[in-house]
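Hello K.,

You asked for the raw outputs rather than the summary table, so here they are, unedited. I folded two proteins back to back in the same session to keep the settings identical. This is the first:
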Amino acid sequence: MSVLLLLISALILIYLGVGGTTAALVMSIATLVGVFQDEWHLASVLFGGLFLALALILVIPSELRLDKFSRPLLGWVRSRLPKLSSTEEEALKSGSVDWDGELFSGKPQWSKLLDARPAHLTSEEQAFLDGPVEKLCAMLDDWKITHEHYDLPDKAWKFIRENGFFGLVIPKEDGGMGFSNTAHSEIVMKISTRSVSAAVTVMVPNSLGPGELLMHYGTDEQKKHYLPRLAGGEEIPCFALTSPIAGSDAGAIPDKGIVCKGEWNGKEVLGLKVTWNKRYITLAPVATLIGLAIKVYDPESLLGDNADIGVTCVLVPRETEGVHAGARHLPMNTVFMNGPTWGNEVFIPMDQVIGGQDMLGKGWTMLLECLSIGRSISLPALGTGAGKVASLATGSYAYTREQFGRSISQFEGVQEALEPIAGYTYMMDAARLLTSGMLDRGVRPAVPSALLKYRNTDLMRIVINHAMDVVAGRGVITGPRNFMARAYNAVPIGITVEGANILTRSLMVFGQGAIRCHPFIVEEIAAAGMEDEDKAAKKFDGIFYRHLAHTTRNALRALVLGLTGGLLESVPRQGGIKSSYRQLARFSAGFALMTDVTLLSVGGGLKARQRLSGRMADCLVQLYYASAVIKQWHEEGYPDDQRPLVEWCLQTCLRDLQHSMREAIINFPVPALRWPLRLLVFPLGATGLNGPDDKLGTRVAASIVEDTPLRQRISRGVYTTMDPDDSLGRVLNAYKLANETADMRGRLHDAVRNRDEDDLDGIALLMGHQRKELVDWACAEGVVKADECDKLEEALTALYDVIRVDAFDEEGLKALSRCAKGKRKVVERPARD
C-alpha cells in the first residue's frame, strides 16, 4: 500500500506540476499513510522507504544526485543531443519565442494568447491604405503589366518612389513612414489583390534587404547616408543571397570577399575584393544599391589570425566598376524585376560592410534576425490576398453563373469547392494577424515565420486551385477578362521563394522548433557544451530533472485528456468553444510528449528523418492556426455570424492535427515506441474528430456567396472596383445587379418555364437584341413592371458579359508577340574581366 500511495501521489503531483519541498512533503505523507495502512509490515516499510528515498533524490537537489545520477546522465545526453553546425547554432540564437513556446510546453496558457496585444492599425496607417494605396492600385492594369509592358507603368514607379512605399518600415526620423509590421502586411496584401508584380516590387525593399539590415545593424554613418535615400526612392535596393549552387544556404555560398587593400575615391584603403554570382534576385535589374551575402577570408592576416571570417553582408553601389546586373528572369510570367547579378574581384572599402568592420563574419545572424521579420509578412500577406480576392471573385461568379436554370452556387459540388476557399482564407488571415501582432510587440518569431510562410502559401495553392475549378473554362482562357489567371501563375513563386516549402516543412519548422521552442533543450545543449565539467554537471543537474518531470507530466496529460476528451482541463468559457480548447490542450500535450520522445530516440538523426519532421511540423501548424482563429474571433468580440467559419476552421485543424499525429506514430522510426505512443496519445483510438460535416460546409460556402457583412469581413482588404470594364469589377458589377434583380429574374424564369411555346422561342441571351426581345416580352405580358425593364435588361447584359472570355484576332496576337519578343540569354558565371 505504501508503494501504491507513493506512486499515486507522485503521478498526481507530476500531473499538477507540483515539485520541490511541497512534492517531497506530500510523497512522504503518502508513504507514511501507506505504512500505517499496512500496520508497519516490514515489506511495506522497506519498499516504501526505498522508493521514497529514490523519489526524494530526484526531487531535491543534492551532491548525491549530482555525483551518482547527473554526471553519468550528462555523458549519455551529450551522445543523444543533435549535432549542430555553426549555421544551425546561429539559427537557434536568432529570433525569440512566443505562443509557439506555449504549444511546445504541452499545457498552453490560453490567457497569454487572448490577452496579448492584437494587431492593429493607427489612423495614419489606415489613411495611407485608404489614400496612396488605393491610388496606386487604381493605376495598375495587371494584364497590360504582365502581357504588354512587362513592367509596371512609369507613373506607378514614380508614385511608389515619391509616396514612401519603399520606406514603409524605415523610421520617420530617417525619412521613412515608420509604419508597424501590421500596416506593412496590410499594404502588401491590398496591392497583391490588384497586381502580384506590384506587390512584390513594394514588399521586397521593406523586408529582407539593405533597409532592414541597416536599421538594425548599420553604423550611424551608413544609416544617415542610406536610409533617407532608400525611404525617398532615390536608391532602389536589392539583396542577393541565392547562388546557383548553394541556393539560399548561406553556410554553403561560394561567393567570397578577400580582405585586401585597394583604391577607393582616389585613396588606398582597407577593403574587400568581392566575387559573386547570384540569381533570382528581386529588383536586381533596376537596383542602384546591391546588398550581398558573401563569405569573407583574410589569407594575408590583415585583420588578425583568423583567415576564415565567415558570412558577411555588404553593400555594393550599382555603378561600381565590375558590377553586372540588368538581365531579367520572368518568374511564371509575373514581371516584377528579378534577375541575376555577378561581379569578379570588385573592390569595396570596409565602410561598405553593413555595420562596419566590427560586423565581419556576423552576416548569418543578421540575416536570420531580419528573415524572421520579412518571412512573417511578405509571402503570408501575398497568400492571404490571393485567398481574399478568390473568395470575393469566385463567390460572386458562382452566384451569377447559371446552369440548368439555377445559380451554380446552389450545386453541392460547387459548394464543396467554395467551402475551403472561404474557410482557408479566414484561417490564413487569422494566422497572418496573429504573427504580425507578435512582431509589433517586439517578438522575432523565427519558428512561426517559417510555418506561416509555408502554410499560407500552401493554402494559397489549395484555394486558387478550388477557385479555378469553380470558374472552369472562364479561368482557363488568358486575357484581360480573366480574374484568376495571374493569381494562379503566381502560386509557384510563393511556394518556392524565401525557403522552398518542402525544405521549410521537412527541416526547419519542427527541426528548429523542437530545440528553439522547447522549455529545456536549449539550456541542456548549453550545459553539454560547457568545457568546465563541474559547471556543466551543476547546470545540467538543475535542468534535467525538470525536463524529466515535464516529459512525464505531458505523458500523463496526453493519456488522461485522451481518455476524458479533455474534460479535466480548465479552459476559457468565451465563445462557447470549450470542446475545441480541450482538444487543443490534449494534442498540445501529445505533441510535447512526441517531441521529447523524438529527441530522445532519434536525437542527432532528426535531420535525416524528414518525413517524421514534416509530420510533426504539420501538427505544430494545425495547433498554431487553430490558436490564431480563436485569437481573431476573440479580438472581434465573438460575432455570431462568424461562428460557422470559426467552427469549420477549428474542426478542420483538429481533424488534420489528429491525422498528422497518427501518421507520425504509425511511421515512427523506432518501432518499439509506436504502441506506447499510440496508447498515450490515442488511448481510445483516433475517433470523433472527423472535420466539418456537410451542413456546416454548406453554411461556410454560403458565406462568400450571400451579400452579407460576413462576406465583406472575409474579403476585407481587397482592392475593389465596380468598373464593368475591369476584370474583377465586371464580376462584382454583375453580382450587384444580380442581387438587385433577383426577384425580377425569378419571375422571368417562372414565366418562361410556363410560357406558350408560340409566344417565345426559348431564352437566347447571346445577342443584345435577343435580350431586349425577352425583356419586351416580359413587359408586355406583365411579368415585370415598366419601370423595371431597363434594370432587368442591364442585369441580363452584365450576367452574359461576366461569362464571356477573350478571343484574339490575328493582329491582336501579333501585337502580343511583338510585346513578348526579347533576346534570350543564358546567364552563367562570366570569365574573368
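The second followed immediately with the same parameters:
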Amino acid sequence: MSRLRTKLWRDVRAARWQFAAIGLVASLGVAMFHGALVGYENQKASYRGSYQRLRFADVTVALERAPRSVLVPIARMPGVRAAEGRLVTELEVEQERGRRPRVVGRLITLPTAAEPSVNRLRILEGRALANPPRREALLEASFARAHGYRPGDRLYPVIGGRRVAFTVAGVVASPEYIYPVQSKQFLLPSPETFGVLFVPQRPVEALLGMSGSINEVALLTAPGKEREVGAAVARRLRAYGPREPQPQSEQPSNQLLQSDLEGYKPFAVVMPILFLGTAALALSLVLARWVQAQRGQVGFLRASGFPARAILAHYVELGLVAGVVGGIPGVALGHLLGIVISKLYEQLLHMPYQVREPHPELALAGFLLALAACALGALGPARQAAAIPPAEAMRGQMPVRPSRAARVRLPLLIAFPLRNLLRRPLRTVGTAAGVACAVVLLILSGSFVDSMDESMGIYLREIQGYDVSVGFMPARGESVIFHLRQWPGVLRVEPSLEVPVRAAHGGREKETVAIGVPPDARLRRLPGPGGRPLRPAPGTALFSEVLARRLDAEIGDRLRLEYTQNTRHRRARADVRAGPLILQPVGYPVYLRLAELQRRFAAPLGLPPDAVTGALLKVDPRALAGVRDRLHRTDGVAVVQTKRELEKQIGDLTEYSRTFIWVMFLFGAAMALAVTYTAADIVVWERTRELATLRTLGFSMRRIALLVSIENLAMAGLGALAGILPGRWLAHYLIAASQTEGFSLQATIYPKTYLLAVAGTLVLVFVGQWPGLRRIRRLDLAEAIRLRDE
C-alpha cells in the first residue's frame, strides 16, 4: 500500500491550491459550527450560572400591600425553598445637571442586615449598602453606564411629591435586569430613560408610608413546582390583592434572553450545513475530474493487483486530507469566533457572571463533521474509480458521442464553450451548483442587512412621525395636550394612552400594551402590508402579524384585553374585534381608538376620564432643543425622548446583530471566492490538453483566455441564476426563524442584493480562472505538443 500512499501525497501536492480552497470552505463551516455553538453554550451557561449564584426567583407574586409577617407562613409552605418580601414602586427620578433631567425609576428595597435570600446582586463597582441604613442606592449597571454614574454621585427620586437625595453606593448586576427592560409591554431596553435603584428597606418604607409592608414576594421553589407553588401562595395572599404569579420563564428579561438564544439556533445549524455541504460538493467535482484524468493510473494499479476496495479507500483518503486541511484551522478559527461572539454579547448586556469555556466536545464534533463532509464528497468519485475494469481503464477514456446540438456549426467562440458544457452535462450541473451555493450565501448575508434596514425604516420613518415623545407620571387629563399646543415652536401635539394588557384568543394569550390613538393621528402612523396607513375602527384593534400568529387570530375574531395588574379590588377588560394586520417591526402593541381605550379602562383604573399617559410632538427644527429642555423642566413629565435618541437606542441594540451579519458576510465572500476559484480552475485544468493544442495551432493567449472566460462565465451564469430562488427561500426561512420578543424583521431583499450577489460571483469566477490560464501561458511549445499527444 506504500505506492498508494506515495501517489496520495503526489496528488495532493499537484492539486494543492484546489485542496486549499476546499479546505478553506470546510474550515469556514467548522468555524461557523464551532464558534456559533460555543457562543451559544457560553451565553446559556453565563445566564444560568448567574441565575444559580444570585438565586434568581423561580416565581414572583405582586400584591397591593401586605404586612411583612405574611412571609413566615409562606416560607413553611410545601415546595418553598426561600421567600423574600420587598417593596417595588415606580416614580420620577431627577438627575443632576449634565445628565438627562428626568427618568423613570424603579425602587426595589433590600434587607438591611443581610443579603436577600432571593434575587441577590453582584457588586461591580463601589460597595454594598451601609448598615445602619442611610439614603443610599445601588444602581443597575446599564442605567449607571448610560448616565455615567460613579459611587458618590447623587440622584433624586420624587417620593410623595418631594425630591429626596440618594447617594450612589455602588453599581450592580442583577439577574432580573440582564436585559434592562421595564416590563413585558416595553421590551426595548432603554437605560437612557429607565433605571433600577436598589435601596435600603427601612428608610424607603418610611418615605413611602409603607412601614412594615411589602408589595411583592419572590420565591425559590422545588424544581418544576414554580407554577403550583405560585398559585398556592397567591391563594394564601388573596386578602392582599395578589396579581397573577409570574414564573421565571415569563420574567421579561429572561424571556428576551431565551428569545435571543432561540433566534440564534437556526444560524448555528443551517450555516455550517451550507458551508460543509458546499465543501463536499466542491471536493466531489475535483475528484470526479481527477478520476477521469487518472483512468490509466487506476487501470495500472488494478492490473498490478490492487483490489477495488484499495482504490476506493485511496480516493476517500484524498477527501479526508481535505477534511483535515479544513478541520484543524476551522476549530482554531471557531474558538476565536466563539470568544468574539461572547464578548460582543457581554458588551450589549451586563451579565453578572461570564462563562467562557473551550468546549472540546464541540471542537471534536466540528472536526469530525469536516471529515465526514469531505469523505462523503469523495465517496462518489471513489466508487466510480473502484468500479472501472482494469482493461477499460488502461485504454483511457473513450470519446463521448457528441449530441446533435454539439454538431451544429457555430462560430468557434460559441462552439468551443458550448461543446464543453454539453459534453458532460452532469459535471456542468455540478460545477454550476457550487457557484449557486456561493450566490445563496451572498444573498443570505445581504438579506439580513436589507431586512434590518427596511424594518427599522418602517418603524422610524413610516410609523413614528413625531420629533419628541413625552411620558407623564402619573397619567394626566387631556388638558395638558391643549397646554402643550400653545408652546412656541410646537407644530402639532397628539395624545396617547398606554395600558398594559393581556391579549387572549382561543386559549392563547400574550402580554402586550394597548395604545390609544386619536382618529386623526398623523404622528403615529399604522401602515398595512401594502404601506397604506390604517386607523382603528370603533370596536376593533389593530396589531401585527407576529401577535396574530401567537394568538392564532384572524380578521374579525374576538379578542379579550385584560389589564395585567388586575386584582380583586381593581379589574378592567375589553372585548374587541381584530382588524386588518399592520406592519410593526418593534414589539407587538395593540392599537385602539383613544376614546374607546379611555372609556374601557380609565374609570376602572382610577384614571381621569380623558386620561393620557403621553404625547407626541411635531416641532419646528429650530425650536427642538428649547422645547426639549422646557419639557424636562415641566412637572409631571417623567420621560422625554427625541426621535434621534430613539434611532440611536435602536442602533445600539442592533449593533450586535449587525456585527454578526457582517462576520457572516465575510465568511460568505471567502466561501464564494474559494468555490468559484475551484470551479473555474477545474475547467481550465480539464481543458489543458485542448488548450495546449490550440496554442500549437497558433491561437494567442488572449483568444484562449476569451474562450475559457466564455465557458466559465456561461457555467457560472447558470449557477448564479439557479442560486437566486434557493437563496431567497433560505433567507426568508432564517429571518422568520430568528424573530425575537423585541424585534420582528420584515423579510426584504433589495434588487441590488441580487445584482451584487450574481455580479460578484461572476467577477470571482473570472478572477479565479487566471491561475490556471497562467499555467497554460507558461507551457512551452514542446510541452504543449507532448500534452496534445498523450
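DSSP finds 24 helices and 23 strands in the chain.

Happy to rerun anything if the numbers look odd on your end.

Regards,
P.
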